[in-house]
Automatic annotation (TrEMBL):
<protein>
    <recommendedName>
        <fullName>Protein sleepless</fullName>
    </recommendedName>
</protein>
<dbReference type="GO" id="GO:0032222">
    <property type="term" value="P:regulation of synaptic transmission, cholinergic"/>
</dbReference>
<dbReference type="InterPro" id="IPR045860">
    <property type="entry name" value="Snake_toxin-like_sf"/>
</dbReference>
<dbReference type="Pfam" id="PF17064">
    <property type="entry name" value="QVR"/>
</dbReference>
<keyword id="KW-0325">Glycoprotein</keyword>
<feature type="signal peptide">
    <location>
        <begin position="1"/>
        <end position="28"/>
    </location>
</feature>
<keyword id="KW-0732">Signal</keyword>
<dbReference type="GO" id="GO:0030431">
    <property type="term" value="P:sleep"/>
</dbReference>
<dbReference type="InterPro" id="IPR031424">
    <property type="entry name" value="QVR-like"/>
</dbReference>
<dbReference type="InterPro" id="IPR050975">
    <property type="entry name" value="Sleep_regulator"/>
</dbReference>
Length: 144
């Protein structure tokens, strides 16, 4: 004869099954979405209307970070002019221990930074780095 489940065990199982099927209520990250090639405000002064809820984008809840890309093409290549461009967007992944990386190749450079708070891709990288450097100097002076 099969063992009988106790009413409390049945209630607990029903509760956890119901809980597992509920949609996630985690709030999505909001990032600036723009490209300075089509909107010059994107370069250094992203506007409030550029702040987008990443869950409304094509990959929805997979977005966990914001990204800012500084692209530089240093000279004309294949008939395309030299250009400096800033792109801000939602990002599927980022590395918390490596928030920025830099790549360079023939005639071009790119600096890519990720961050993990709403609207965090609005700041310019040099300004953020300068702020962190200032805090480091102040802490070093205080310890000395």
């Amino acid at each position: 004869m099969a063992p009988q489940l106790q009413p409390a065990a049945l209630a607990a199982a029903a509760f956890f099954l119901t809980l597992a099927t509920l949609p996630s209520t985690t709030s999505a990250i909001r990032c600036y979405e723009c490209n300075s090639a089509t909107n010059t405000e994107c370069d250094s002064n992203p506007q409030p209307e550029m702040l987008k809820n990443c869950s409304d984008q094509s990959k929805g809840s997979k977005y966990t970070a914001c990204r800012k890309i500084d692209e530089n093409v240093d000279f004309e290549v294949n008939g395309l002019p030299a250009v400096k461009r800033v792109v801000r967007m939602c990002a599927v992944e980022g590395e918390p221990d490596r928030p920025c990386y830099y790549k360079a190749g023939f005639g071009g450079r790119v600096n890519v930074c990720h961050c993990f708070e709403d609207g965090c891709n609005s700041a310019s990288v040099p300004a953020a780095a300068l702020g962190l450097a200032a805090v480091g100097v102040l802490l070093a002076l205080r310890v000395a």
